[in-house]
Amino acid sequence: MPSMTEDLGRIALGIAASRRGRLEAAVERRHEVVGRHRTVDHLLREMKTTRAAMSRKQHKEAAVGRRERRSEVDDLLRQFHRNRDKIAAAARVQAASFMRDLTARVAALRDAFSASQKARAKSRHDLARALHERLAGYRQDRHDAGAAWHGTRARHDRGAAPAGAHRPAADENTATANASQPGRYRAPHATSSKPSGSP
Fold it and tell me: What is the DSSP letter of 195?
């Protein structure tokens, strides 16, 4: 049966071994912590360097992009101004052409209206002259008809007078004039006994 001394010796050896194990584990943890600190510092330095490089790259790219966009905007503005000037010039040309065409059309309409007015005035003048001529012919026909009617009555009266009675020279001249112009003779009006052409 083991003695108490041996048991205490084993316990002491176990405690010492545990202490050495804890010391070794602590040393390993310190080494691991130091290694992790170094790794983390290395990663942080790399991240900082990478971020700085990326930042510089992004700034350069942004500056290049801004210059490109500024150049594109300048080109667009120049093109816009050129197109605006061209459009304005074309609009002025079109407006001038439209005004010339409108002026020509208005002048043509005015000339056509003036010619139409002159034609209507000439037509009215011709109609009025033809009407005056017809009225004059109508008055002459009535005058001739009245003269013929009076000549007929005079011959009738002379036929009823005693034989050998003297016929007035005016009646003979009127009868002779009417007999020599058969086309001017018109049938006498039954309701009129004097020339209607007299005023």
Answer: -
Closest CA to 145 of 94, 197, 99: 197
CA–CA separation, 183 and 186 (whole Å): 8
Q: How far apart are CA 8 and CA 56, in angstroms?
A: 70
Angle subtended at Cα 82 by Cα 81 and Cα 83, rounded to the nearest 5 degrees: 90
149 neighbors 198 (Cβ within 8 angstroms):
no
In this structure, the number of other CB atoms found within 10 A of the CB of residue 197 comes to 16
DSSP state of 161: S
Q: Who's near 78: CB < 8 A, 6+ residues apart?
A: none
DSSP alpha helices (H): ranges in the chain? 4-160, 169-180
- The structure's pTM equals 0.33
Q: What is each CA distance from 47 to 34, 36, 62, in whole angstroms?
A: 19, 16, 21
Residue 71 has pLDDT above 90, yes or no: yes
- Domain range annotation of the chain: 4-184
Buried b (16+ CB within 10 A) or exposed e, 62-82: eeeeeeeeeeeeeeeeeeeee
Closest alpha carbon to 34 in 23, 45, 42: 42
Q: Tell me, what's the pLDDT at 157?
A: 65
Place of tokens 């086309």: 183
